[in-house]
Amino acid sequence: MRYRYSRQPTDSFLECAYRQVFTIGGVTLYFIAAGHMLGSAQVVMEYEGIRYLFTGDYKLQDDDTCESLEVVQADVLITESTFADPQVTHPDPIAEIRKINDQPHNILLGVYALGKAQRITSLLNRHCPDRRVLVHHGILPLHKLYASMGITHLKYEPYNRREMKNATTDPIYLVPPMTFNSYYRATNVIRVFASGWKHLQRLNDMDLYISDHVDWNDILDYVVQVNPREIWTVHGNGKHLAAHFAGHISVSALCSI
């Protein structure tokens, strides 16, 4: 946050550890890991004997660049519903990243700079070990920030135009979305974008469905673990969840898109 909002006064931010309890207006709160990216958190709120769990963005998949998802049971689950659709199931991220091994070409790989870029770098290191990872200058500071917070196993190099043009090892160049979009005329590269969204796969040379959000099956699994009496949905459309749990769990949409 301090890196992203460097012009804000330093006292604008309050650091809290996971499970550090505090109270606001009679509501007791604490954070637990969301598994979305490094430092991401769910909010547990308790008021008059009722426990609410607000997920924010979260994922159930393993990710060695962030804390694993933590689960608590709650009376009310407030869940993101970005991909809350029975038609959406994310493939295994390891199988997806290994598809790059079948592409003996330079690869221009679009990634979100914070969270996704670090996860993709780690996946490439582990499952495409013969490929060099070059990183755009807009991503480098965040890789270094991750390293300062203990994520030191990532192997990568700053982008070098000469290396990209002359390398014999078919490097992978990680770039943020705006750069990826501006390079639409790039030649001698395979264009790929890592995302769970179908529309971001269009016009690319191959699909790479790697998402940091829960899909339909993940949400159903999480509901079982949390065991709520009510579900409230945000950041998506909760109609499929309402239909699925009709007669069993009340589902209400707080915010839909």
From TrEMBL:
<protein>
    <submittedName>
        <fullName>DNA ligase-associated DEXH box helicase</fullName>
    </submittedName>
</protein>
<dbReference type="InterPro" id="IPR050698">
    <property type="entry name" value="MBL"/>
</dbReference>
<keyword id="KW-0812">Transmembrane</keyword>
<keyword id="KW-0436">Ligase</keyword>
<dbReference type="GO" id="GO:0016874">
    <property type="term" value="F:ligase activity"/>
</dbReference>
<keyword id="KW-0472">Membrane</keyword>
<dbReference type="InterPro" id="IPR036866">
    <property type="entry name" value="RibonucZ/Hydroxyglut_hydro"/>
</dbReference>
<keyword id="KW-1133">Transmembrane helix</keyword>
<feature type="transmembrane region" description="Helical">
    <location>
        <begin position="21"/>
        <end position="39"/>
    </location>
</feature>
